[in-house]
Amino acid sequence: AITRAVATLGPKQRRQYKDASVEEITNDLLAPKRLYPIVLLSNLSVSPNARRMGLGQQLCQHAERITLSWGYKTLHLKVEANNHAAHTLYTQKLGFDKISTITQAPAIRVDPLQGNFVEINADMYILAKSIMIEPTTTTTSSTDKQQKQQLAI
């Protein structure tokens, strides 16, 4: 919808949005419909043999930095309701709040044995986090670094 809206603008009108954020452009061009873009992190997955090393937390913190660089102040994410470990990480360690539940939503899983994706239906939580400043980075111990290097081999 936004691509069509921008395509209808003349060159002078387009130039006025040159330095505008996506949110500002959307508010101006799509306001009557009350649609607005969000940043949504979906299908974050860490290989089973690389879990419990802080990689999920680091990936989320990187997504927070990207969210800020795009001019947004809120990061949304989807997590399967039965993925208790991920839900705990997002809500207790990273400060996300549950804002919605979607029942039997399409979800994608990776089949590591076959090396392909499988679509399923699962209950999903939508979580959100307001980001006001750059996220803090975690320090990695030498043991963690050694474990990560061993996994890379």
Question: What would you say about this model in short?
Answer:
The chain is an alpha+beta fold. Helix content is 37%, strand content 26%.
Distance between the termini: 46 Å
Strand content: 25-35%
CATH class: Alpha Beta
**What class, by secondary structure content?**
alpha+beta
CATH second-level architecture: 3-Layer(aba) Sandwich
Write down how many β-strands occur, each being a DSSP E stretch of 2 or more residues. 4
Q: Taking all residues together, what is the mean pLDDT?
A: 81
For the structure shown, list the relevant keywords.
4-stranded mixed beta sheet; single chain; 153 residues; Aminopeptidase; alpha+beta
